[in-house]
Design a protein that fits this description.
The protein has 178 residues and is an all-alpha fold. It is 83% helix and 0% strand. It contains six helices and no strands. The chain is rod-shaped and about 120 Å long.
Length: 178
């Protein structure tokens, strides 16, 4: 065992093992620290995003609620109906107003869940359906006051207006934010 190669290997081998072990442990430690820093950075970014996005989401919920209140059949008729207006003219204005109000608020959907937005669209569609049904029941030859009366009658038969159901869904979603 006096071979110089064997003596060098006996001297170097423990050093190489210690070096590789230390290198591996330091690499693991540094990787864990980097992961911790990355996670902390992502948490900070999320908190910062949340600080900016939450007010936008709340504003979107407010705008959607205002939209739903504005297209509620009773509110809509009282706001749109003019004296001496025919039922055909009133019908056209009511449907156009609901569609315009919806188009004006369509961008708010990016801040709400798909379920809540679906309820908003459903409220729009059912409100238009209620207006159309009432119009079919009175016909074009009647005065606008007859259409208004029929819309109020048909709305009174409902347990909840389409807008009320959508507003309940919006409120539930906002409650989950807090």
């Amino acid at each position: 065992m006096n071979d110089p190669v064997v003596q060098v290997l006996v001297a170097i081998l423990p050093s190489v093992v210690v070096f590789l072990t230390a290198f591996y442990l330091i690499k693991q430690f540094m990787g864990a620290r980097a992961s911790e820093r990355m996670a902390a950075h992502l948490t900070d970014v999320r908190k910062e995003d949340h600080k900016h996005i939450l007010p936008l989401r709340l504003q979107a919920y407010e705008r959607i609620t205002l939209f739903l209140e504005r297209i509620s059949p009773g509110t809509l008729v009282l706001r749109i109906h003019k004296s001496h207006q025919s039922s055909g003219s009133l019908h056209g204005e009511l449907v156009a107003t609901v569609r315009e109000e919806f188009d004006h608020n369509v961008t708010q959907q990016i801040y709400v869940s798909d379920k809540a937005w679906s309820k908003v669209k459903q409220a729009r569609d059912e409100t238009i359906r209620l207006i159309n049904l009432s119009y079919e029941q009175v016909g074009d030859v009647q005065a606008g006051t007859e259409l208004s009366r029929k819309i109020f009658e048909n709305t009174a038969r409902l347990s909840h207006t389409p807008s009320q159901e959508a507003i309940l869904a919006i409120k539930e979603e906002v409650r989950r934010l807090f």
